[in-house]
Structure formats: C-alpha cells, structure tokens
Amino acid sequence: MATRRDFIKITGLGVAGLTVGGAGAYQMLKGASLWDSVTLGDAERVPTYCEVCFWKCAGWTYKNKEGKIMKVVGHEDDPHCDGRLCPRGTGGIGMYYDTDRLTTPLIRVTENGKQSYRKASWDEALGLIVENMKAIAEKYGPESVALFNHGSSGDHFERLFKAFGSGTIAAPSYAQCRGPREAGFKATFGTSIGSPEPTDIRDTRCLVLIGSHIGENMHNGQVQEMSDAIDRGADIITVDPRYSTAASKSKFWLPIKPATDLALLLAWIHVIIEEGGYDKAYVEQHTTGFDRLKHHVRRMTPEWAYGITTIDPETIRQTARLMGSAAPAVIVHPGRHVTWYGDDTQRSRAIAILNALLGSWGRRGGFFLKEKASLPNYPYPAYPTPKWDWKATLRGRYPLADEAVTNALVDASLPGGEGQEQMIHGWIVTGTNLPQSMPEKPRLQKAIDSLDFIAVVDTMPMEITGYADVVLPECTYFERYDDLRAAPHREPNIALRMPAVAPLGESKPAWWMCKQLGERLGLGAFYPYEDYSEVLDWQLKQVGSSLEEMKHLGVKRWPRKSEDLYFKEGEAVTFNTPSGKIELYSSELESAGFDPLPNYTAHPEPPEGFYRLIYGRAPMHTFSRTANNPNLTDLMRENDLWMNPKVAQIWGIENGQKVWLRNQDGAFTSFPIKVRVTERIRWDCVYMVHGFGQKREALSRAFGQGASDSEMITTVMIDPIMGGQGMRGNFVTFSIEEPKQVQSL
Length: 745
Ligand SMILES: Nc1nc2c(c(=O)[nH]1)N[C@H]1C(S)=C(S)[C@@H](COP(=O)(O)OP(=O)(O)OC[C@H]3O[C@@H](n4cnc5c(=O)[nH]c(N)nc54)[C@H](O)[C@@H]3O)O[C@H]1N2
Ligand SMILES: Nc1nc2c(c(=O)[nH]1)N[C@H]1C(S)=C(S)[C@@H](COP(=O)(O)OP(=O)(O)OC[C@H]3O[C@@H](n4cnc5c(=O)[nH]c(N)nc54)[C@H](O)[C@@H]3O)O[C@H]1N2
Ligand code: SF4
Ligand SMILES: [Mo]
Known about the structure:
By secondary structure, the protein is of the alpha/beta class. Among the domains are: about 190-370 and about 575-590, Dimethylsulfoxide Reductase, domain 2; about 610-745, Barwin-like endoglucanases (Beta Barrel), CATH 2.40.40.20. The strands form seven sheets. Strands 5-4-15-14-13-6-7 form a seven-stranded mixed beta sheet, covered by helices on one side. Helix 10 crosses helix 14. The chain starts with 11 loop residues before the first helix and ends in a 10-residue tail after the last strand.
C-alpha cells in the first residue's frame, strides 16, 4: 500500500551526496593500531565521554600532529570504566570516520510522483522546521509537537521543547527497556534503580542474573566488577534459556523455559522463607507485609515451579540456599532490558522482594546507596507550563508510569485512536532509531503517516531518517560539547565531553541546532550564549571548578556528602513508600487495582512448528547504532540465529545455512539469517542479536546483513502497570526459500 510518506531508501544520493572523509580517512583509521607503539608524548588528548551506549564511559581522544583523531582510551579516574573502554567504545572512532555519515541537511521532495531527498542549506531546513512547529502550535498548541529522544542530543532538544511549551517527550529506554524494573523497585523500596545500576558487584559473594547477560551486555563497569568478583570467588547463578557468556562463568546455569521466570522467583521466595534463609533482623526492622507474603507463597513450592519452569526442585533449593548463605552480600540483579512478557513490573517486584528478604538493599555486596554531583542549572528563564504533557497521553492507563511512555505517544499520534482525538501532530526525533527500537512497525508507520510533520536528527542515514520530512545531520561526539555527565555512583563525579576536531562537512552539534531553532521561534532569551562551552564553564564555576580545569582533568570526583555507602547496623531508615518501609506487600499497587503480591500467570506458547524468538546483545555492537561502524563490522558483520540441534534436525537445516523467518502474524524478515546450530540454547526458542538486517542502502556495510528481530515483533504484551511493551511473545518458523510475498515493512 502506498503511504503518504514513502520510506526513502536514499540510494543515489546516499552514495553521491552523503559521502565524506573518503577512503583516505578510513585507511588512516585502519592504521590507528600502529599508533599504539608510538609514544603518546607527541599526541594531544582531549576529554570526552563515550556515546556508543548509555553507560557513558569517560575517556581521552588522542590526536596526532596533523590534528587527526587516532584513538580513544578509557579515563583512568572514571568510575564508569576504570580506565578501560569496551570494544564498542574503542571502536567508537568508527562513528567519526564512517564514510556513510550524514553531513548535510536534507529535505523530502516529490518529483514526478516519486519521493526523494535533496540537499538543503541549514537556513532552509531550520526554517521549515520552525514553520511547521509554529503552525502546529497555532492550530493545536505547542504540546502537540512531540519529542522522541535518546542520548546526549536529547537533553538539548528537551530544553528547547520545554521553552517552546511542550512536555510531550519520551525515550524508548523506558517503555521498551528498563521501565518495569523502575516501577517494581520503586513500589518496593521507594527508589527506582536508574543508570548506572547501584549494584555493589565488586564486593558481592553471589550474583544472580535473570535474563541479564552481563559480558555480552557490555556495560563496562559491571562487566569489570563481575570479573573481579569471580576472581575473588563469588558465585554466579544465571537463569537463561541460552548458555550465555555469563552462564559459562556460573556455578549454576538454570536453562529456564522462557516466559516462566516469575514461577522460579516465587519458589525461591518460598524456600527462603520456609527454610528461614532470610535476614530476620532486616526484615523485621525495614519491611512490611512479611506475613502476607509468607501466606501468599506457601504453596509455591519448588515442585510447583518445576512443572512450569522445567528447573528441577533440588536445583531451586540449592540456589536459594546459596543466596541465603551469601546474604546480605548477594545481588539478585534487576536486569535492564526487562520489557518481556507484559507482567514485567510484577516480575521486577518479585526480584525486589527477594533482595529485601536477603537484606541486600543498602548493604555491602548488595546495592550501595548512590550519590550524584549536584550541578546547578544554568539560569534560563522559567519554562512556560504546558496545558498538558506526556501524562495526558496515558489516557488514564499505566498508573505507575514514572517516565513518558513512547507507545502512548504513538497512540496519541493516531487519528481517532481508541475513540479519542489525535493529540499529537508533529514529531522531532533525535538519537533514536524508532523503526528498530519500537515493536509493532505497522502502527508506527500509521502514526508517522498521520503527522503534519516529522524531523529527524541523526549522525547516520539510519532507518528512521527515511521517514523524515527534514533530516538534520548531527556531528559525532568527537566533534562537540554536550552537557556534563553527572551520573550517580559510589562517589559523586562529573565528566566533560569536548570537541577533539571540527565537525565534518556541514554537520553540527545538537546544542547549535537548538539555539538556532530557539531564536527563530522567538525563544532567544533561553539562548544567551554564543557557544555551549559558556554554559559548562558557568556550571563548573558554581562547583569550584572551571572549563579550563576540566579540559585537563576530564573527570572530577568529590567525597560523598551524605550518609555512608551502606546502611549502618540498626540504623533507622525511612523509605519513600506510603508506609515508609520496604513494601513486600505493595499498598501502592493495591490502591491502583493491581496484585499487591506478584502472581505467576501463563503466557501464550508457540503454535506447532514455531519457536519463541528471544534476542539480546553482542559485545561488539550497540543496537543498530553500530551496525555500520567500520571498526565494529570488522569484528562482527551480521547476526546469526541460535538453534538447538534437535530443531535443526527436524527441519533439515545445517549449520551456516541461511533461512528467512516468518512469525505468527505472517510477517517475514526482509533478509535471511545464518543458522548457528548449538546445544547452547533450548529447543523451544531461537535467539538472535538485535540491531541487524538494516534496510537503508545508504548504510554500505550494514545493508542487508543479517536479520532484524524488530520485524518479527508484531505482537506486544503491554504491562498494564507502567505501559512497557513486552516483546518476547512472538514466535517464528523458518523458510528455506526466499519468500515471494515479503510482508515486512
Ligand atoms: N526488537 C528490539 N527492540 C528493542 C530492543 C531489542 O533488544 N530488540 N532493545 C530496547 C532497548 S533496551 C533500548 S534502550 C532501545 C534503544 O533504542 P534506540 O535508542 O533507538 O537505539 P539505537 O539503535 O542506539 O538508536 C540510536 C539512533 O541514534 C543515532 N545516533 C547515534 N549517535 C548519535 C548522536 O550523537 N546524535 C544523534 N542525534 N543521533 C545519534 C543512531 O544513528 C541511531 O539512529 O531499543 C529497545 N528496542
Ligand atoms: N554490547 C552491548 N551491551 C549493551 C547494549 C548493547 O546494545 N550492546 N545495550 C545496553 C542496554 S540499553 C540494555 S537495556 C542492556 C540489556 O541487557 P540485559 O538487560 O542484560 O539483557 P537483554 O538484552 O534483555 O537480555 C537478553 C538475555 O535474556 C535471555 N532471555 C530471553 N528470554 C528469557 C526469559 O524468558 N527468561 C530468562 N531468564 N532469560 C531470557 C536471552 O537469552 C539473553 O541472554 O544491555 C546494555 N548493554
Ligand atoms: S560501555 Fe562501552 S560503548 Fe558503553 S559507554 Fe562504555 S565504552 Fe562506550
Ligand atoms: Mo536499554
């Protein structure tokens, strides 16, 4: 079906119009390893923090005498990275040298009925965005322009939106990622987890990973602490239908039947309570609802859970005892990407309850009490109060959503959705590749087609840019200032990102785009500076530092101001819950009409001949954002499909053979995927790494490499508590022949 906004593949223009740097730049990058043997005395280094994922490790960008970027290394004093970047961070310079980068603004044009993009000047592109923002604001109010963001550029656009009068702002890192655990932990401890997670892995004696594959999930500080903990004799328990890297380092690997984790968690709670393995003094002093919890789980025995999870009762008992004996230096990890089956807040609640019983919250080797450097805000004028914001898009749903729900913004962009009027009429999207990160692509497509206007800000011609009316090219993190990183950790700390080189081509930093847009929108009072470095210098001076000092330091740490890193023995603690206690029985969930204690519910099973599609990370890639990175594609070019030998035998599929996937709704993958026949996965599911199967031809290395899990996620299970989109209820089967009718978008 022809849609109003054709997805533009940028072919001709992709090659001729978007190429920068040329082969020379890439060749130089390839030679970067030679640099390792050269003394760094000659080199200049400038501080940065990494944008390849959201762990934001601080580092140093090294330049040679000609001023070319040669390498980036971890900052020795940074608690996020402890002096070492992960493979993605090290390869991050590939983002700068990628010859497929966007380097000029683009505007969608229709000629002879065919849509394409043409190069535009900044003046024209910004003018068109301002014209559309004003038109929508006049007709419907500024609230009807929504921002989808992720990463550092999003902070600049968020301030622009607030100045403009819109609080309709959302990121996929909530409803497609960590939202349920934030809601589950908040309902229990009164505090959400946040990023980086305050897990005291360094000092733990037992780490329990439930569908969290640290090691492939390369969140740097956690991976390093986990490996140190293993060296010191800590035990790892990994619950995963797949033998992950973490599983290979574990004392126990529990190859659980997917979608049944809540039963295992409840059985663990049962054993820990019945056998008295919980921390009695802690539970007595800090929690409420213990008796009700005890009563609730009395029949949830390991034998009961065995029938659901396929994990044998003795293993459930042994692992529960192992946790109990390590307590309180035990972490039942909250995970991060936890939008799986639609009852994810309840699963996260069970994880939180287990930690509470083991007394790990606020204890050494459990969860530490984090602290963040407080940086005063630059003295902007007061923001206007919007008439409505993202909360209105929930339309009475998802009462425990603490952050904006991307899918609710998509709903509110549809005409007449659920008998409601269309609330949102324009989008600006920055730093998020929505067609890959949001499931239910046809719905997304429909919402985009219903908009008056959509602008996309990106560094690369990623899939989302093909839906834009205007594309703005951002320069990479090596070429710009952004906000100071001030994330909570064991000690308050900040990190500076500054440009190592000038932006390539006509690309620009987000702060510059926002200042330009702001001034054209009549919001010049919010932009009283010429360069963003002035804002940073002002902020730094308020805390006794300066931009000059930070250019030399890169990272600055302060001693903690507040209480100890852990609770003191017997210390009275007030938790930010309705009762002031850790709520094993959640009064907040009860008053919102949800189960105050978690229950196991069965989820749909694969139909005959289908297998549950599960997905995850590879250490050398971040989602789709690195799929075209020349350094990282050298390490891994495409994903593969993990398949149990029994399944391969039934289908007569050989190791290395390519297959197309079809899901329960009849959608096919656009490209085939190579099968990896392995005992390391259960027979009832197949696994692939997210972020591959790119459809933009302008991505010369990534185009058509591997398959996209997102194309197979057409059914979602929505968490009624916070709106998260559970994505693991999709089932696939295999097609050896290329499908004639490709139904994917
Ligand atoms: N099917 C499926 N969906 C998922 C997941 C999954 O595993 N499978 N994971 C979920 C999770 S955990 C998350 S957090 C989300 C992540 O979702 P996204 O944040 O959408 O993920 P990325 O693929 O990193 O998209 C980032 C986009 O930002 C662009 N970009 C990179 N650097 C810059 C920059 O400096 N400036 C600008 N303006 N743009 C930049 C990239 O080119 C890319 O287009 O996806 C979720 N969705
Ligand atoms: N290298 C790299 N690291 C990253 C990222 C990246 O893109 N690349 N992204 C970062 C981001 S934003 C996030 S949110 C995190 C996500 O990382 P995590 O939160 O660690 O994990 P997921 O990607 O959700 O989980 C994938 C694991 O869950 C298992 N699994 C699937 N279904 C089930 C099930 O029903 N039960 C159980 N117990 N396990 C199951 C899979 O086999 C796989 O091992 O990674 C972060 N780190
Ligand atoms: S974990 Fe790796 S990719 Fe993420 S910020 Fe750190 S170095 Fe960069
Ligand atoms: Mo995430």
